[in-house]
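Tutorial handout. Part one gives the primary structure; part two gives the three-dimensional structure as tokens.
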Amino acid sequence: MRYEKGRKDASRGRIMEVAADRFRSDGIAASGLATIMSEAGLTNGAFYPHFQSKAELVRESVAAALDAQSHQLQEALATGGPEMAIDAYLSADHRDNPGKGCASAALLPEIARQPAETRALYAERVQSLMRQIAEALPPTEDPEAVALGVFSTLIGALQLARAMEGTELSDRILSAGKAAARTLIQPLQEQLAP
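Part two.
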């Protein structure tokens, strides 16, 4: 049976979209292929024409999620600079929707256990995110170091806030994370003040 042109690409895209959401929401290990394929509206047998293994799906889904995050970061930085990016990242909406949020905050422990190829791809994408942040910062001796500090602070605060979700402490963690990230960039901004 022949299908119209583009159907295979659309099916692959749907599998990746569902997988990326499921991995970030439930974790990689807890997300079975049968569930992903069912949610994508496809049979289990339809998986293998698109991907050789779950590891390949993980790698490509994480890459797609990080690419989408890079685009969102670029928009936030262009619109409101590092301050807006910090506020968007440590928002209640981002905390409450891990399936659509930062792959790093949702998956770091599991990414560390993935095959070397996946870890290398992850490192490449994160370095690209760091360069985006560094380029948006005021001039400093080592802007990538500042960007790494900011990103690490944001990820840690988001993970803690998610662990405490539904409590007042969760909101306080988001606020404290924003303040800590701003503190890292504040000396840079003060250097530029007249």
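Part three, for discussion. The mean pLDDT is 91. Helices lie at 7-26, 33-39, 54-89, 92-96, 103-111, 116-136, 143-163, 168-192.
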